[in-house]
Amino acid sequence: xxxxxxxxxQDRFRKLREMSDSGxxxxxxxxxxxxxxxxxxxxxxxxxxxxxxxxxQVTVCGRIVRQNLKGKVYxxxxxxxxxxxxxxxxxxxxxxxxxxxxxxxxxxxxxxQASGHMTRTRTGEISVLVHQITLLSKGLSPLPVIKEHxxxxxxxxxxxxxxxxxxxxxxxxxxxxxNPETRSIFRKRALTVRALRHFLDxxxxxxxxxxxxxxxxxxxxxxxxxxxHNQLHQDLFLRISFELYLKRLLVGMYDxxxxxxxxxxxxxxSFKHNPEFTQLEFYQAYTDYHGMMDVTERxxxxxxxxxxxxxxxxxxxxxxxxxxxxxRITMREAxxxxxxxxxxxxxxxxxxxxAIRAAGIEVxxxxxxxxxxxxxxxxxxxxxxxQPTFILDYPRDISPLAKTVPDDKxxxxxxxxxxxxxxxxxxxxxxxxxxxxxxxxxxxGKLYKDEDEEATPLDEDYLxxxxxxxxxxxxxxxxxxxxxxxxxxxxxxxxxxxxxxxxER
RNA sequence: GGGUGUGUAGCUCAAUGGCAGAGCAGUAGCCUUUUAAGCUAUUGGUUAGAGGUUCGAGUCCUCUCACACUCACCA
Length: 505
What we know:
This protein folds into two domains: 7-142, CATH 2.40.50.140; 182-326 and 387-496, BirA Bifunctional Protein, domain 2 (2-Layer Sandwich), CATH 3.30.930. Helices cover 34% and strands 28% of the residues. The chain contains 15 helices and 21 strands. Strands 8, 12, 13, 16, 17, 18, 19, 20 and 21 form a nine-stranded mixed β-sheet that branches. A hairpin with a 5-residue loop joins strand 6 and strand 7. It is elongated and about 90 Å long. The structure holds one RNA strand.
């Protein structure tokens, strides 16, 4: 059983006991709200402007976010999800007994219900002149106290804050309760997902849900989380991508499908990696990666417009313009521009490794050729790509699910999207040749074998699906969290996750 | 995993190796139009944890824990 720790908690606990002793419920079952806070204000303002003389009676509910006991008058601001309004409580309006209860028991952070009529105080602030007020829910632990001062010019100065990063993440409820800007981040996150969904629905993509628990994981190179089904005596993996299931659905004659959901990767965390993250993947039949570029740039520009009101945003001090068309450049050219290395001239891992070292770039000596190329991209190209950019045509041996470029066996038709110095998306002309796919899986298995734990196990069922015939298609995955980082101008993924993963304390 | 940094009251922060402090919140009062209200008085600490050096440690040393930044890793 919880016991009060610090003094504020002890005081609140004592108040709770006293209320209980005098028969007042601190957590009543029923509320009688007639107006949200914003409805109350709007109704009053409408009545004012039409110069109606009838009083606007309201019952509003909310959390006490500011209070000022002034002898026989008590002012409080309460806040609900729609806004903030002042309560004006006078002892001669609510009676001695109720007023005494307010004085004795109400604290910042408590939820209350107040009935009265709308009025303006002497300073002109819209308020509820209260005739009845009750407690709806007693707060036993004190929230951080943040005071606001509104300047003449309307700007708001804040005094006191709840800014400890760790505590804000660990107690996100408290962060949300006292920091409106945190609430705003997650509204934008919801708008982002809504915009993506709306755009794809309008383009006749079908939203689907595929298994999160998978007997064989695949579609990406990452280490999975494992789990176990007791009754079936079966090992299961949490998915690392949706790809292989969504493409099965194209075999099943849907022309376009998409899924927005969670991926799980058992890897390091960083400012742009969380063990579980939200991904959008969409697949379209009868197109290729050129078609995916067209859809993707319109999709993201649309989302930016819906979320921020513009296709031009500021991210970490730089302007980012989502307006299509985006820059398109091949990976080979992008790397050559920045470090003079043409990896095609270094067709073996050893040769490329020497070239990279000669250019003074740190790199791991046991990497495969494809990983060396990818490393070059990640270290010298990625951080410079602030404006939305498609990097095209990736080395074949790190892309087993993409079709090769015609007349170029070393590259596949694949692009990644870079914005704000981060990778936010990945797409291919999807490989639909079942025999080639089988060979590529086998090749990957051989290439990575023991030294690479990310090697994808062979998915026979996926190959069987493809053997029934898969239409030519393009597919694209977009990291929704990173998109939200861009739209909310946050430099870490944790700021855009409600409950980011933290080590257990 | 490596490096750098941070951790003091519920919140935000001070404290040269020498009495652990402030503002806000809280508590007891005064105040019937306040809004960072004000005034008077006042409570609140395992200084992240464990060990060490020292007459004396929030401060110096070692280890542990957590977080931040960064490097490595990372389709």
